[in-house]
Design a protein that fits this description.
328 residues; alpha/beta; five-stranded mixed beta sheet
Length: 328
């Protein structure tokens, strides 16, 4: 491509070459007329004699040969390890005694998908999907989370000091192991809008999960969303009679993921990860109460203010129609 300050465009090169070849101008006279060097005038005149007008365009500066390029046999070994083992550049480089940057260039040259874009079980590119309207599918899942002892855990005091502090603030079981318990985050995420409803509950039993869904369903209805289907994993609470009866009474179809395939419920799994990164482990909390107090504000920010990469930087609420008054 001709750069901005080039004295000759392809049309100018053609005029220069015709002056030298067709009209018989000396090279020095043509160079002075077009304000270029004699060598440049000679180059374009020579190209015109050989290729005609087609020779006036820019040519690739890529070398014809590259003696330093990775041998084809090595490239094939890199691709074979990547496809069969699904390793990253660093591990492949260690196995084949190469440099990670070399492996990365080979993978990029052959346009192999990133590991994050591959299905872990099959190695095939993940097929992304999104339902066309809010409520067509809601993903539901439970995330187990360890409680924080009063005064803070190991993230504040360090691992060893945190264990001592934990023992001082909790009851002890047999073998002197502290018991501070767990919290269970019950989450429901709309597939189209990513609008989320979440509660911190004491367990994952069937009646707890069913009561959570009743409140989640009311939340979505309040936002003008009619839920048609719910997708869960194969947890015991989701295979229970109360759960089935509650969804059936509301006219909602229940779908379950295939065993050992959590990626099918990927949107709520990604919500779980975001929740841990941006709330649960975002800063060192002094107690479980302090962390729970921050949860309501974080969830509100997630739904109405936080930009979502899958939604072109807009919050989930931007995909819910007729949602006036909910952005405060």
């Amino acid at each position: 491509m001709t750069h901005a300050n080039a004295p000759l465009t392809p049309a100018g090169r053609l005029r220069l070459a015709r002056c030298v070849v067709d009209d018989g101008w000396p090279l020095r006279r043509a160079a002075e007329r077009f304000q270029v060097s004699v060598a440049t005038a000679q180059r374009w005149a020579t190209r015109y004699r050989i290729d005609g007008q087609a020779g006036m365009t820019d040519r690739s500066s890529r070398p014809r040969t590259n003696p330093n390029r990775t041998p084809t046999r090595t490239e094939r070994r890199i691709i074979k390890v990547r496809v069969l083992r699904r390793w990253g550049p660093a591990r492949i480089a260690f196995l084949l005694h190469l440099v990670p940057s070399t492996v990365h260039r080979v993978l990029t040259r052959y346009r192999l998908a990133r590991l994050a874009h591959l299905d872990r079980a099959t190695g095939q590119p993940v097929r992304r999907y999104e339902h066309l309207a809010p409520g067509e599918l809601v993903h539901v899942d439970i995330k187990k989370l360890g409680n924080i002892p009063d005064g803070g855990g190991h993230r504040i005091h360090g691992r060893q000091a945190g264990d001592v502090h934990k023992r001082a603030s909790t009851t002890l079981r047999r073998h002197n192991k502290p018991v501070i318990g767990y919290s269970y985050l019950h989450n429901a995420v709309d597939d189209h809008s990513r609008l989320a409803y979440s509660e911190i509950l004491p367990d994952e039993r069937k009646h707890t999960a069913t009561a959570f869904w009743t409140r989640a369903h009311a939340f979505f209805r309040a936002h003008g969303i009619t839920v048609k289907r719910v997708l869960t994993d194969n947890g015991a609470c989701y295979r229970s009679q109360p759960w089935h009866e509650t969804l059936t009474a509301a006219g909602i179809t229940h779908k379950r993921t295939r065993p050992y395939r959590p990626q099918t419920n990927g949107k709520v799994e990604r919500f779980n990860r975001t929740l841990l990164e941006e709330w649960a482990y975002a800063r060192p909390y002094q107690s479980e109460t302090e962390r729970r107090d921050a949860f309501t504000h974080w969830l509100h920010t997630y739904n109405y203010h936080r930009g979502h990469t899958a939604l072109a930087g807009q919050p989930p609420a931007s995909r819910v129609p007729n949602l006036t008054g909910h952005y405060s």
